[in-house]
């Protein structure tokens, strides 16, 4: 293996629990690669964790990184390489968030490149999505059946991105017009939409961080976050149906803002 002059990017996060983070992978790592490519620096090797999720492989291939240049950490550790780049703030998420923000142009560049690479999708149908937490063990919606019954009657579709392939997620959100969801990494996919409307419910105990505002805003979308009380140590929440109804009606009190229940 040639460990010489091409650029090497270390994507292994210093916090092991975030090495599998869909959100941080796109925001912190892929945006940098996409911008490097725009500058003509496309001879890139990417160091990944030894147990690399398939979505990381597919997204790197979608950006044109050759498969043999996706290199597990164990093959590089202790070896000399030139032009090694460490991306900063990969494990940072605390006020005032300076390291958590990405230029909108970088997000748009990344989304455009991945949309060009995704397999053909002829559906073209605009979709209204409710994003389920799937197999998540935290931040569940305790009254999800009630919420789903209401949203299905409004033409929404319940989806579990965690059960989909990477490219299925990209295609699904490309056609999303309205998205309602509890806080979770699947909302990273909002970057593939065009002028979407996003309503996110955040548990107060988890910390209300409007991470997905920048993703929605970069593609001309409208973002609203409602902060709800955490019902238990797992930060499960109960979604008030009246908040959803008001947002669906386009009430000004629930458009383009972050608010706490009762505001």
Task: Draw up the topology in text.
Layout: E1 7-10, H1 22-38, E2 44-48, H2 54-62, E3 70-72, E4 84-86, H3 104-117, E5 127-131, H4 144-153, E6 157-159, H5 166-174, E7 176-182, E8 197-203, H6 213-218, E9 222-228, H7 241-248, E10 258-260
Parallel strand pairs: 1-2, 1-4, 2-3, 5-6, 5-7, 7-8, 8-9, 9-10
Care to describe what's here?
By secondary structure, the protein is α/β, with parallel strands linked by helices. It is built from seven helices and ten strands. The chain has helices spanning 22-38, 54-62, 104-117, 144-153, 166-174, 213-218, 241-248; strands at 7-10, 44-48, 70-72, 84-86, 127-131, 157-159, 176-182, 197-203, 222-228, 258-260. The strands form two sheets. The chain has a six-stranded parallel beta sheet. Strands 3-2-1-4 form a four-stranded parallel beta sheet, with no helix packed on it. Helix 1 (22-38) packs across helix 3. The chain is globular, with a radius of gyration of 19 Å. The model has no long low-confidence stretch (mean pLDDT 86).
The count of β-strands is: 10
| Rg on CA atoms, Å | 19 Å
Strand content: 15-25%
Secondary-structure-based class equals alpha/beta
Cα distance spanning the termini: 59 Å
What tags apply to this protein structure?
single chain, 28% helix, 18% strand, 4-stranded parallel beta sheet, alpha/beta, 10 strands, 7 helices, 263 residues, 6-stranded parallel beta sheet
